[in-house]
TrEMBL record:
Reactions catalysed according to its record: a purine D-ribonucleoside + phosphate = a purine nucleobase + alpha-D-ribose 1-phosphate; inosine + phosphate = alpha-D-ribose 1-phosphate + hypoxanthine; thymidine + phosphate = 2-deoxy-alpha-D-ribose 1-phosphate + thymine; adenosine + phosphate = alpha-D-ribose 1-phosphate + adenine
UniProt KW Transferase keyword: yes
HAMAP family: Nucleos_phosphorylase_PpnP
Source lineage: Bacteria, Pseudomonadati, Pseudomonadota, Gammaproteobacteria, Methylococcales
Organism: Methylomonas subterranea
EC annotation from Swiss-Prot or TrEMBL: 2.4.2.1, 2.4.2.2
Protein name: Pyrimidine/purine nucleoside phosphorylase
Keyword Glycosyltransferase: yes
Known function: Catalyzes the phosphorolysis of diverse nucleosides, yielding D-ribose 1-phosphate and the respective free bases. Can use uridine, adenosine, guanosine, cytidine, thymidine, inosine and xanthosine as substrates. Also catalyzes the reverse reactions.
Amino acid sequence: MSEFKNVTIVKQANVYFDGKVNSRTILFADGGKKTLGFMQPGEYTFNTADPELMEILAGELEVQLPGCAWQTVKGGESFNVPGNSAFTMKVKVASDYCCSFIK
């Protein structure tokens, strides 16, 4: 899906790691929630409450999911993050992403 229709966008940005990771929250009529964001090169650890689907739209990074080895993820690829966990990303080149929160 290259675009979202009939959504609400929260105007205030989500800013992490001194501005190196930014996103905007998108709310859907059915209660679904996603964020669209951009990450500059660096290493970042995120904590989750709900399970997430991370789609890397452009760029390249390595991700270490709980209990797993590092894996490379490039634009057009995705990975699932378990709820109530933490994961680390080493962003190699500026990367565009979409995070879907799974309820």
